[in-house]
Amino acid sequence: MDMDIKELFANGCFVPDWTEVTAEVQEAAPVPERKELRVLLDELAEIKENIENLQARSWYLGKLREYTENGFSRT
After folding, report:
1. CB–CB of 8/15 below 8 Å?
2. 15 with 5: CB under 8 angstroms?
3. Rg of the Cα atoms in the chain
4. Mean pLDDT of 3-20
5. How far does CA 57 lie from the centroid of its chain?
6. Cα(55)–Cα(48) distance, integer angstroms
7. pTM score above 0.70
8. Do residues 8 and 14 lie in contact, with contact meaning Cβ atoms separated by under 8 Å?
9. Which residue, 1, 21, 20, is CA-closest to 11?
10. Who's near 61: CB < 8 A, 6+ residues apart?
11. Which residues have CB under 8 Å from 14's CB, separation 6+?
């Protein structure tokens, strides 16, 4: 009488190690890291600064593209 795990479970039987957590399961579900509010606010400020820098670069590249397409290349 060879039953697989699903049949055992359906019949109300559990394998002896059903409560043990395997290493795979532990690695798959990491514990979230709790951070201080000050650290989170500092990280948010850094993210905002990066966004502002990217916006400034985008504007600069747009102006450079406009200049090269319209002004610089026609001389």
Report:
1. yes
2. yes
3. 29
4. 67
5. 25
6. 11
7. no
8. yes
9. 1
10. none
11. 8
Please say whether the beta carbons of 30 and 40 come within 8 A: no
CA–CA dist 49, 46 (Å, integer)? 5
- The number of C-alpha atoms within 13 Å of 56 and in the hemisphere containing its C-beta is 6
| Token duo for residue 15 | 């394998």
DSSP 20: P
Of the two residues 16 and 55, the one the predictor is more confident about is: 55
Q: Is 42 helix (H, G, I), strand (E, B) or coil?
A: helix
Per-residue pLDDT reduced to its tens digit, 22-46: 555 556 666 678 889 999 999 999 9
Sign of torsion over alpha carbons 50, 45, 43, 34: negative
